[in-house]
Design brief:
By secondary structure, this protein is α+β, with helices and mostly antiparallel strands. The protein is 30% helix and 26% strand. It is built from 6 helices and 10 strands; from the N terminus they run E-E-H-E-E-E-E-E-E-E-E-H-H-H-H-H. Strands 1-2-3-10-5-8 form a 6-stranded antiparallel sheet. A 4-stranded antiparallel sheet has the order 4-9-6-7, with no helix packed on it. Helix 4 packs antiparallel against helix 5. The protein starts with 14 loop residues before the first strand and ends in an 18-residue tail after the last helix.
Length: 213
């Protein structure tokens, strides 16, 4: 492995997230293991460029750097205008953060990690890649991607759910039903989501499909 590497952000293949932004997997590209770092681009004004979330589960501090365009942040309901060059640091993991692009092409570089702890990539990285593969109907590729994620995060509910989706679309009904049951066992609210998810249309009439009371 090289002792150092350099690349233009535009040379790292971006992955579109359906109905929203483009994700540039910087951490994944370089194989960074010490911290999370990724770039997000909104192609149109009004699109989200940071999804609404907290870092309660992982305990991360996060730093957002606006490297193109202009973003409008919302931090626990407080508005923060962030033009190109702005740096927004969220120290408290419990702060709900969200940002939309105020200009087309707004790009944010996001860095994060838990103070004093070893870093591991979040499950969403594998989900984003699997989503892109499913959009191309590469069902087996999506399955392999999610299985890689589960090797790092065994039993993680979102990964199990997306594995079940990919398996259902690939015609692997038994595997899909098994993994869907595991996902719901870890996170009960996925039961109602599955009941309306078109990915499961081919297995919804199976008596093993999780019922909604």
């Amino acid at each position: 492995m090289a002792r150092w590497e350099a690349a233009r952000l535009s040379a790292i293949q971006a992955i579109p997230v359906p109905e929203t932004l483009e994700w540039t997997p910087v951490r994944r590209h370089f194989g960074i293991q010490a911290f999370g770092v990724n770039a997000y681009t909104a192609t149109e004004a009004g699109q989200e460029v940071v999804g609404r979330h907290t870092e309660d589960v992982r305990g991360h501090e996060e730093l957002y750097v606006v490297i193109a365009g202009r973003a409008s942040f919302e931090l626990d309901g407080e508005k923060v205008d962030a033009p190109t060059g702005a740096v927004v640091f969220v120290r408290d993991p419990s702060v709900e953060r969200y940002a939309i692009a105020a200009e087309p092409g707004t790009t944010i570089l996001a860095l994060g990690g838990e103070p004093g702890s070893a870093y591991s990539p979040g499950p969403w990285e594998w989900v984003f890649v699997a989503q892109a593969k499913l959009e191309r109907e590469d069902f087996e590729g999506a399955i392999a991607e999610i299985e890689d994620g589960l090797a790092v995060h065994p039993g993680q509910a979102a990964l199990l759910y997306w594995l079940a989706r990919a398996e259902a679309l690939a015609g692997r009904s038994d595997d899909a039903l098994s993994h869907l049951a595991e996902a719901i066992g870890e996170r009960e609210e996925l039961r109602s989501r599955a009941a309306e998810d078109d990915a499961f249309v081919t297995i919804r009439d199976d008596p093993r499909f999780p019922a909604v009371s």
